[in-house]
Amino acid sequence: xxxxxxxxxxxxxxxxxxxxxxxxxxxxxxxxxxxxxxxxxxxxxxxxxxxxxxxxxxxxxxxxxxxxxxxxxxxxxxxxxxxxxxxxxxxxxxxxxxxxxxxxxxxxx
Length: 109
Description:
This protein has 109 residues and is α+β, with helices and mostly antiparallel strands. The protein contains 2 helices and 4 strands; from the N terminus they run βαβββα.
């Protein structure tokens, strides 16, 4: 899995980049076949930095979430929660589709 972090209107320190990478790699708990994670940090508004994460998953497409908060790591936590929900929902849908039991109507006489 490839994790790319890009920054607009500023620069992130190595420690912050490592924290972000460490957190986003935990998303593999919700989907085993994540192929790429793109993290975009926008520091244009100093009081409310925004963060967007795009995930590409094999046989599942893309998942996207974004948030802004007073602290960058708070925005990261919000985005992580949104993505976890999306991945869980996708997994439930895929599981329901493959393992659903079809109730057939009883023949009436």
